[in-house]
Design goal:
Length: 459
């Protein structure tokens, strides 16, 4: 089955095929590790995970690189103002920048584990790839695409005829993008020029993280990090690059500019962007303090895997408004699937008609809502044996990632079995007093008792 993906570059649906099948090269912009991970981030990483699992289902071998941004991402990243986020986190918590980065990387990993996101094949840290970034910057300076000022080295957007194509912005629109009251480098030639290297002077004189370079001590700009790490591990042209929609106008535009000017050819074939998880219509973010973490979810006794179901109910290209009611309802659906998993042990044969419908939904630009509909149809299908249903559901869970195989099975002891048999006999004989007493006895053993047309069922 062929996968169709929406490519931000062409603003249209396109058939996806990798450059060198069966391998798919996929680069995912990773987190800036300066503060807590929230479920807004997880919308993006669950999205990457579903895309990767779909590619695996289709028989591809996915080389998935996700970076860790531990230097160079400024608080005002649209116009390069403010301070380095990691340095800001360090000041806030009275720790070193290295401790902050390590602590929040760990926290990010815990969140990934909680929502069962597969770890990337390679997870490079920006601070481990400074020589690659310097080399790329040198190439851009040599080719005349970059210039040095007293404060930094900038990419010269006027030299790139294609600049702005991803976000469909004209360079002239960007000229008014910076407010007059924001003090930037007076030697900067165009407001959209962006830093490839910041020198450790002026407001950055006290930067804890810095390296030696042909332009003196300093640290890399955020955008060059992703270009350098993507090319280091995936080559100069990669199949898929992902990010949140906020990355389209600046970060990804800049990644394309510097990568393509350095190599002379296409950097990314498919750009995939996730819309936001919002709260009351606003992006869930640390700066707005409208965010929730995995601990908040645990505190409400909700299974973190319910976040996966919540995310899958909406197209990744549409905003998803977060409410606790919606998450609680997703948790109820998850419990239904877990109950099924708990009571099914015998694996029959996965039903191809059903799995084909499931895969077809995913091939339709990762239509997870449609894919979930095939799951509920499967559970309600009375024409299939329970064993076949279970095998089919397990196949689907390779992409859903709800850990259904790991759900502990219901253990029915010999004692319970004999109580059930006695209770069924009592009910047939319309001896309701004994039937009620036997129910109480089963409940005292920790079972939940249900009456069904085929007799007593326990959970
Ligand atoms: P950051 O750590 O801020 O660089 O964000 C890491 C990734 O998470 C980026 O690709 C963001 O676009 C994405 N992201 C952050 N907040 C949200 C949100 N509320 N909804 C969807 N994606 C988000
Ligand atoms: Zn990036």
């Amino acid at each position: 089955m062929a996968l169709t993906l929406y490519n931000t570059k062409s603003r249209s649906l396109e058939f996806f095929a990798p450059l060198a099948a069966p391998t798919v090269t996929m680069y995912a912009c990773g987190p800036t590790v300066y503060d807590k991970t929230h479920i807004g981030h997880m919308r993006k990483y669950i999205g990457d995970d579903i895309l990767r699992r779909t590619l695996i289902l289709l028989g591809y071998n996915v080389k998935h690189v996700m970076n860790i941004t531990d230097v160079g991402h400024l608080t005002g990243d649209e116009n390069e103002t403010g301070e380095d986020k990691i340095e800001k986190g360090a000041k806030r918590e009275g720790k070193t920048v290295w401790d902050i980065a390590a602590m929040y990387t760990r926290e990010f990993h815990e969140t990934m584990r909680a929502v069962n996101v597969l770890f990337p094949t390679i997870e490079p840290k920006a601070t481990d790839h400074i020589p690659q970034m310097i080399a790329l910057n040198e190439k851009l300076v040599e080719k005349g695409f970059a210039y040095e000022t007293a404060q930094a080295v900038y990419f010269d957007v006027s030299k790139d005829a294609h600049y702005g194509e991803l976000s469909r912005q004209k360079l002239s629109d960007k000229e008014t993008g910076v407010r007059d009251d924001v003090v930037t480098d007076p030697e900067k030639r165009h407001p959209a020029d962006f830093a490839l290297w910041f020198k450790r002077i002026g407001k950055f004189a006290d930067h804890q993280m810095y390296w030696h370079s042909p332009w003196g001590e300093g640290f890399p700009g955020w955008h060059i990090e992703c270009s350098a790490m993507a090319m280091e591990y995936l080559g100069e042209t990669i199949d898929i690059h992902t990010g949140g929609i906020d990355h389209v106008p600046v970060h990804h535009e800049n990644e394309i500019a510097q990568s393509e000017c350095a190599t002379g050819h296409e950097f990314v074939r498919f750009w995939v962007h996730y819309d936001f998880l919002t709260v009351d219509g606003e992006k869930m973010s640390k700066s707005k303090s409208n965010f929730y973490t995995i601990e908040d979810i645990h505190a409400k006794n909700i299974d973190p895997l319910a976040v996966r179901l919540l995310v899958m109910q909406t197209s990744y290209r549409k905003p998803l408004n977060f409410t606790w009611e919606a998450l609680t309802s997703a948790d109820g659906q998850l419990k239904k699937l877990q109950r099924f998993a708990r009571t099914h042990t015998e694996e029959g044969a996965a039903q191809q008609v059903v799995t084909d419908a499931f895969t077809a939904a995913l091939c339709d630009d990762i239509n997870t809502a449609k894919a979930l509909a095939t799951v509920w149809e499967l559970l309600g299908d009375t024409s299939l044996s329970e064993a076949d249903k279970w095998a089919t559901l397990l196949h689907m869970d390779e992409v859903l990632g709800l850990r259904l195989k790991e759900v502990p099975k219901l253990e029915i002891t010999e004692v319970a079995r004999s109580l059930i048999a006695k209770r069924d006999a009592a009910r047939t004989a319309k001896d309701f007093a004994s039937s009620d007493a036997l129910r109480a006895e089963l409940e005292s053993l920790g079972y939940e008792v249900k009456d069904t047309p085929s007799g007593t069922v326990i959970e």
